[in-house]
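Support request, priority: normal
Reporter: lab tech (M.K.)
Component: structure prediction queue

Hi team, I submitted a job for Putative AdoMet-dependent methyltransferase from Pseudobutyrivibrio ruminis yesterday, and the status page still shows it as pending. I've pasted the exact input below so you can check whether something in the sequence is tripping the parser. The sequence length should be 205 residues. Please let me know if I need to resubmit or if it's stuck on your end.
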Amino acid sequence: MLDNKGFDLWADGYDEAVGLSEESNVYPFAGYKNVLGYIYEVIMEKPGAAVLDIGFGTATLTSKLYENGCEVYGQDFSARMIELAQEKMPDAKLYQGDITKGIVPELHEKKFDFIVGTYSIHHLNDEQKVEFIKELLGLLNDGGKILFGDVAFDTREKLEQCKVEEGQRWDDDEIYFVLDELQQHFPGIKYVSKSYCSGVVVIEK
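Reply from support: The job had stalled in the queue. We restarted it manually and it finished. Here are the results:
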């Protein structure tokens, strides 16, 4: 797993690496544009929404929200990613912080209409995901939504099948969403599939 220094080094080539995987329709970024497009369309239904992006990277999604009038906040653990994102979104409020330690204190002072995370929450293990989602729910306005776009599966069986099929490409350091295992903690959780290995996890407050 890359640490923050690793992501700093990868930052300038990140979008290109994602694009190659997405265009080839292969794990892990198969369906990437459809994942981001779905999240964008949901958020655009609420003009001027306050959005918190967790692990925003180079702001591929968030910059489009910013350009279309959203109030953008973010947390990422890479200083270089923040630098690149801030260039695209000068007025966005972006903070450096490791999500394994939770949300930085500054962001607890705000309530959000949407909290998004695209290909970032897989750095948390299953127990950490549950606790992190509970923390995020406390930062949502009533009726707000958490939208996680990532490698994800309906069941553990489908995840294991994909792991076998991907072979050496599979990243054992990343821990992906399994919807039916999260339902016991969040009964209203939904999953919108966007490729054979990815989709959007939706949790509404």
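The domain at 4-204 is CATH 3.40.50.150 (Rossmann fold). The chain has one domain: 4-204. Let us know if anything else looks off. Ticket resolved.
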